[in-house]
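Input record (one chain):
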Amino acid sequence: MDSFTKREQIGILVIVLVIVVSLGFKFFARDIIKLEDNMEVINENQLEASEDIEDTSIIEEEETIIMVHISGQVYKPGLVELEAGQRLTDAVELAGGLRKDADIDRINLAKKLVDEEKIYIPKIGEEPLEEISTIGVNDLNIEDISDKININTCTKEALISLPGIGEVTASKIIEYRESTPFKNIEDIKSVSGIGEKKFQAIKELIIVK
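The corresponding structure, as predicted from the sequence alone:
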C-alpha cells in the first residue's frame, strides 16, 4: 500500500482524537451522574437524620416540661410551667408567692409535682374540701366551684392571671366584651393577640356566662 499523504494522516489523527474525546466524555458524564445520585442519597440521609434529631428533641422537651394549675392563696393563680421533678414550692414561687392568709400547715411544699396536676392553697381557717362538699350547690357560686374565670364579667387582674395574658391583652378583652359579649369561650380568639396556641393554654381556665 502506498503511504498516506500528510493530509490523510492529519485527517486520520483528527478522527482518532474525536473518537477518544467522545469516549472520554461518555465515561466522564456517567461518573458525574453516579456522583449526583450519590449526593442525592447522602442529602436524603442527612435530612432524615436531621428530622429524627428534631423529633427526639421535641419528645425530650415534652417529657421534661410539665404544666400544673395552682389556685387559692397565691398572688398569681393559673397555669405554671415547670421541669419534671420540681416541687410545690417552685410552683408557688412562679405563682407570685403565698398570700399572708395561706395555711402552709395544710400543704406540703416539698411535694413533687406531675403534669396536669391541680393544686389548691387553702386559707387559714378555711374548711377542708371534704366539709365544703357537704354545702348545697345552690349556696355556692358556680364559678367558685369550677375555679374558672368568667371572661364576660371578671376583672382585669383576673384576666392577667391567665397564662400568656398581659395587661395590654386583658384591656383588649375587656374592650371587646363591652361591645360584643362572649357567647362561648372560643369567641375570645376574636380578640387581637389571642391565637390558637394561647387559647389552648387558657381554655381550661375560662368560662362564659
